[in-house]
Write a structure and sequence with these properties.
The structure holds 2 protein chains of 2 kinds. Chain A is mainly beta. Chain A contains no helices and 11 strands. Classes of the chains: A mainly beta, B mainly beta.
Chain lengths: ~110, ~110
């Protein structure tokens, strides 16, 4: 069964550094999402992406964040100048056009020290 | 605006007890999906069930069962004869016609003691 793949599974970075989290969505999906889960809290929507542009973003998704689909398969989340409070699990998800079901990846645990 | 409420923050049961996790949702859409996910201590989200808004049939899968009632906007999850391995955080989620953007509840931490 096709699945969403995220790499790395765990990343440790120093405060102020830039990180790129990578996701390979399911191949025939057209909508892509990033979610964040701070430890012990709920999963929060960050951004959705369709047709090579952001379709919706939450108030969490400020100028520090950006998303990109650099080629036909990858979908990335870049965090510039990371802060301690960016430490969280980041989930990528994708869905088909016209579908209301998103498939989630296994998550990348980001630790900012 | 969408909202998912999981009123139970933590539940603790003894093995073999039945336990029900509550989920109440709010949406203005007539077409939507409801989900339950399990999040074990390792952190990944494990998909358990998807139910669309037009299908109110209850579902049973092994020890798991789900009760969807549109009249009360609830989608409750019952584990029968709970086991220690069921210990996890369980999230209820709602996605609307916005191509799958999901709204999650706060989660319920289930602890099953031997």
């Amino acid at each position: 069964e096709p699945e969403v793949t995220q790499t790395p599974s765990h990343q440790v970075t120093q405060m102020g550094q830039e990180v790129i989290l990578r996701c390979v969505p399911i191949s025939n999906h057209l909508y892509f999402y990033w979610y964040r889960q701070i430890l012990g809290q709920k999963v929060e929507f960050l951004v959705s992406f369709y047709n090579n542009e952001i379709s919706e973003k939450s108030e969490i998704f400020d100028d520090q964040f950006s998303v990109e689909r650099p080629d036909g398969s990858n979908f990335t989340l870049k965090i510039r100048s990371t802060k301690l409070e960016d430490s969280a699990m980041y989930f990528c998800a994708s869905s088909r056009f016209g579908s209301t079901e998103a498939f989630f990846g296994q998550g990348t645990r980001l630790t900012v020290v | 605006a969408q909202k998912v409420t999981q009123a139970q923050t933590e539940i603790s049961v003894v093995e073999k007890e039945d336990v029900t996790l509550d989920c109440v949702y709010e949406t203005r859409d007539t077409t939507y999906y409801l989900f339950w996910y399990k999040q074990p201590p390792s952190g990944e989200l494990v998909f358990l069930i998807r139910r669309n808004s037009f299908d109110e049939q209850n579902e049973i899968s092994g020890r798991y069962s789900w009760n969807f009632q549109k009249s009360t906007s609830s989608f409750n999850f019952t584990i029968t004869a709970s086991q220690v391995v069921d210990s996890a955080v369980y999230f209820c989620a709602l996605s609307d016609t916005n191509a799958g953007k999901s709204t999650f509840g706060d989660g319920t931490t289930l602890t099953v003691k031997p």
